[in-house]
Amino acid sequence: MSVSGPVPRGDLVPAGILGLLGTQGPISRADIARSTGLSPATITQVTKDLLARGLVEELASVPSRGGRPARLLGLVARTGMALGAKVTADHVALVTVELDGSVRTSTVHPFDPRDPSSIGAILATALDGLVLGVGVGVPGSVDAQASGVVDAPTLGWHDVKLGQRLRDRLGVPVLVDNDVNTLAAAERLYGVGRQHSSYLVVTIGRGVGCGIVVDGAIYRGAAGGAGEIGHIPLTDDGPRCGCGATGCLEAYIGSAGLLRTARASGVVGPRGRLSTLLKAARDGDQAARAVYAEAGRLLGRTLAGVVHTVDPEVVVLMGEGVDAWEFWQPGFEPALRNRLLPARRDLSVVVEPWSEDQWARGAASLVLVSPFDSAGTGGEQSRMVRDRLGATEGGAR
């Protein structure tokens, strides 16, 4: 898809080009346009700014398919990393990520959510003088990336001023967002989102989440809570959800809901785990496969409504639950396709392999995109990252 006109708001595009140069090496502007689906005019505009900031440089010329030789663009060698943290109910996953998106280090640390401030001590173990800033992904709503006030029922958090606590402890820029939003940003930088300006990232696992990217920017909603599709109500009197309501999608197909259904159907015993359910499905147990197929049906039916609301170009499915996707899919595909309007039934759904590093790398992407934050999403924190990177709002270093 070709995107013309001004650079999409949110400024994920410049960071995405840095990621492309980092992963593929020096390439021409024309190849950048082909890889990203952006118009040549947009690529010229964005790379001009990156050159002025001293983040990329022009290298040797190579023969073109006609006309003048094409100049290759490459990353300027510079030190600087982002620290990303994915917070869960029992651990924090940390990665350090270089400007091109490559993961340098990866660690996992035990965590008790009853003491949110302890995240600061965990992050401090990974800080060094090269870190440009810290990105944190949490399973809940965040008022704004810059302030980082969190409501996360699964962690027992309400109005937790996480961003300020971490800035006071660490003394570096800190950006906080919903964990699925961070995955959506990372997808724009390094994944399927390079070729699409509007898409959904849907995660299945402990919960069900959705990151929404529209015209190249993450849509966060009025109070940072957009995309909580796990709390779309399916029934009036269904099982109680972790949010306190009853009958939510997540209460049926989140990990706890799947396990409850499996126990009720006798597929696993009272102390059985999801690993037991998955093994039974792989061993051919039809009752186990039916549990997953019904979860897929509920997800597909719900997602059809979201697709009609947002009109994405593509849907990306991620998360711990995709390990069992072959058993979700028989219920998901017909439920989604049959409920989509005929013109949308060929919507592409991409299922991506999963690792926990992806969550934390997504959080680090909050820092990697912040030097280009003309929309003001990261506020003062983005300016501080720009200063640490050595760039200025005026362009040249």
Task: Explain this structure.
This protein is an alpha/beta fold and 397 residues long. It is 38% helix and 22% strand. It has three domains: 64 residues, Orthogonal Bundle (Arc Repressor Mutant, subunit A); 137 residues, 2-Layer Sandwich (Nucleotidyltransferase, domain 5); 148 residues, ATPase, nucleotide binding domain (Nucleotidyltransferase, domain 5, 2-Layer Sandwich), CATH 3.30.420. The strands form four sheets. It has a five-stranded mixed beta sheet with strand order 6-5-4-7-11. The N terminus and C terminus are likely disordered.
SSE arrangement:
Layout: H1 12-24, E1 27-28, H2 29-36, H3 40-53, E2 56-62, E3 70-75, E4 81-87, E5 91-98, E6 103-110, H4 118-124, E7 131-138, E8 141-142, E9 149-152, E10 157-161, H5 162-170, E11 174-178, H6 179-190, E12 199-204, E13 208-214, E14 217-218, H7 249-253, H8 255-264, H9 274-282, H10 286-310, E15 314-318, H11 325-339, E16 348-351, H12 357-369, H13 379-389
Parallel strand pairs: 4-7, 7-11, 12-15, 15-16
Antiparallel strand pairs: 1-3, 2-3, 4-5, 5-6, 8-9, 9-10, 12-13, 13-14
Pfam families: MarR_2 (PF12802), ROK (PF00480)
Biased composition (Basic and acidic residues): 383-397
GO molecular function, one term: DNA-binding transcription factor activity
